Amino acid sequence: MRRAVITGIGFISSIGNDRASVLASLRELRHGFEQVTWLDNPRVAVKVLGTVKGFQVASTEWRDWRWPEGYSFGSEILRSLAPHGLYALCACEQAVADAGLRAADLANVDTGLFTASAGSPFLLHHHLKTLDVARGERGNPMGVVSSISGTLNFNLATHFHIQGAVCGFVSACASSSHALGYALDEIRLGRQKRILVVGAEEPHAETVLPFAAMRALSINPDPGSASRPFDRRRDGFVGTGGAAALLVEEESEALARGATIYAELAGWGQAADGHSVAMSHPEGRGLIEAMKRALKDASVESSEVDYINAHATSTPVGDKSEAFALRSVFGAVPRQPRVSSTKALTGHGLSMAGALETALCALSMKEGIIPGCAHLQEPDPACEGLDLPRATLAEPTRVMLNNSSGFGGSNVCLVLKAAAASRT
Amino acid sequence: MSTQSNACTNPATSGPSVDKLRRLPPSATEDFLSFKGKGDEEALTRLIIAVLTDHSPDKAKAVTQWGPELRLIEDIGFDSLAIAETVFFFEDLFQISISNEEIMQVRTLGELRAFVKTKVTALAS
Q1: Residue A248: in which H helix or E strand, if any?
Q2: Which are the catalytic amino acids of A?
Q3: Which domain holds residue B28?
């Protein structure tokens, strides 16, 4: 069977806009949170956000935007982008360069693009308001392609002239994990030689605050403890935006061109809870099945897993459900896998989460570290038996899992294997 | 900065239309007001060049000087999306509505200028 490997990664995130700074944040457990005021209204109870530094994208007008040095974008691409599209473009450029490829190498039918984002509620709101004020008579011609869900694949495929499989994935917080799973399938089936997978979201009020209405966001005003997955006192997630991009390639292609391999994307599994539109199944039913399927798909025993990047967003219900699921699958294993949720550092990137965390896993695997559980002081009793390291460990790993769960109970588990381990 | 504070306090030079011009060179606002107030055609010409320059998707071909015969697509690198954006800009600026049939009639800079002038004059009368 054809294998897929990760050869390039790129980050625009609350904990860094390049691999080196992200790695330093993981090593030192340095979070990316700041206090913010939403919509100029200090009465909003939510106070903390995983902010994206170095960009100015508060305006609906791209001509006002600013981005970090080192990137050069023309109006032909900017005019149809949302703020998270700009992040995605930067992350993709990093991933392509990291893979040792040039943008021109993507302009063919052997390259695909799978994306995930919620679209841009920020721009959509603006464009619909324009339409409303003009009573349907006028609207910005870029309104649709810049703001609806799918804006990432429209724009990035055009920009990179990608001619293979191009589509977007919509399963809320499991979206970009789905994108990676199906990218693996496309490569296994021999349909594509490489797929650029990117997840991105906006840290704007229009994307994040609707979750406050669901009572899903932390109202803890302390950036140093608002996001504390698995902690007894957790009270909700902290939002974030940014972009994460991964270049997934068929292994023989990567080896033939001498690419550096972060990890093999060795398998995946998905299963749904069949339970609630918004809440996880109390005992993690779908996630258990997703993990079992992923292990089977990757031909990995539960005892071989070294580290699990948990979905755990720091919500009371979700973390508990995942803890049950982890105990169910790994409870009988003599050497417990290490478990942490890097959302303690980054915040919860919604559709971007799966791609971001898989990229963090790939980076950690290559660098021989296991990210620790930042901000965890008193583990929830539901976590009893789980190995939750408080600090980042310098430990080599051969097998990692990355869990993601989305609304409607969609669960995805991805398996990474160390590059050397994949060929033994 | 004084221009900006004047724009905020003088009703004649503020409002949503003028706000659209704030990302163009300051002369564009003067040209807009001059054309709208006095029908100054030279001002309209300068305004159109400024707007086309701003909306050009191909900066290498961007218009640098007026040529009524210059074609939007073939000569100055516009694509259909850039034309749609430019039309939307003028619609919003002058609070007019431009139909698809009308857009199809406009191929050159000269036709664009004549069209905007006719449309705005019709609105005022």
Answers
A1: strand A242-250
A2: 173, 311, 348
A3: 2-124
Pairwise CA distance, residues B7 & B26, whole Å: 11
Distance CA(A386)–CA(B80), nearest Å, equals 58
Mark which residues 53-72 of B lie under 8 Å from A by CB: 54-59
ipTM above 0.85, yes or no: no
Task: Count how many pairs of residues, chain A against chain B, have C-beta atoms within 8 Å.
Answer: 32
- By the 8 A CB rule, do A13 and A22 touch? yes
Number of domains in chain B: 1
Query: Which of B56, B82, B92 is nearest residue A138 as measured by Cβ atoms?
Result: B92
Mutate which of B21, B23, B55 to disrupt the A interface (most A C-beta within 10 Å)?
A: B23
Q: What is the CATH number of the domain that holds B94?
A: 1.10.1200.10
Residue of A59, A138, A155 to mutate, testing the B interface (most B Cβ within 10 Å of its Cβ):
A138
> pLDDT tens digits, chain A, 424 residues: what are they?
999 999 999 999 999 999 999 999 999 999 999 999 999 999 999 999 999 999 999 999 999 999 999 999 999 999 999 999 999 999 999 999 999 999 999 999 999 999 999 999 999 999 999 999 989 888 899 999 999 999 999 999 999 999 999 999 999 999 999 999 999 999 999 999 999 999 999 999 999 999 999 999 999 999 999 999 999 999 999 999 999 999 999 999 999 999 999 999 999 999 999 999 999 999 999 999 999 999 999 999 999 999 999 999 999 999 999 999 999 999 999 999 999 999 999 999 999 999 999 999 999 999 999 999 999 999 999 999 999 999 999 999 999 999 999 999 999 999 999 986 545 4
Residue in B closest to A137 by C-alpha: B97
- Measured between beta carbons, the chain B residues lying within 8 angstroms of A139 are 88
Helical pair A353-367 and A175-188, crossing angle rounded to 10 deg: 70
Q: Determine contact: A72 vs chain B, CB below 8 A.
A: no
E strand intervals along A55-134:
111-116
A215 lies within 8 A of chain B by CB: no
Instruction: Tell me if A137 and B57 make a contact (CB, 8 A cut-off).
Output: no
Q: In sequence order, what are the beta bridge partners of A34?
A: A49
Q: Rounded to whole angstroms, what are the CA distances from A111 to A105, A187, A195, A246, A311?
A: 8, 10, 5, 13, 29
Inform me whether the C-beta atom of residue B103 falls under 8 Å from chain A C-beta atoms.
Answer: no
What structural domains and CATH numbers belong to chain A? 4-418 (3.40.47.10)
